[in-house]
Design brief:
single chain; alpha+beta; Ubiquitin-like (UB roll); four-stranded mixed sheet; 1 helix; 4 strands; 42% strand
Amino acid sequence: MKCAACATGEAVPGTTTITVERDGTTLVLKAVPAYVCDTCGQDYLDAEVLAEVERIVEAAVDSGVEVLVRDFPVKC
């Protein structure tokens, strides 16, 4: 798929790192499956991966953790 950010690159399967700050919690997820532009590096998540990221963020916030760094679950 063409990259919406630069309009010249192709988004190809890869991984990315996502950092989320919410309600006093900072969460870093590494090795998140994504489509990554081969020109500008813009990343895109599919709906299934995004839903899992949201679930992980909510669980971290609910648990009261301040900082969490982890690899993305392999099941996605």
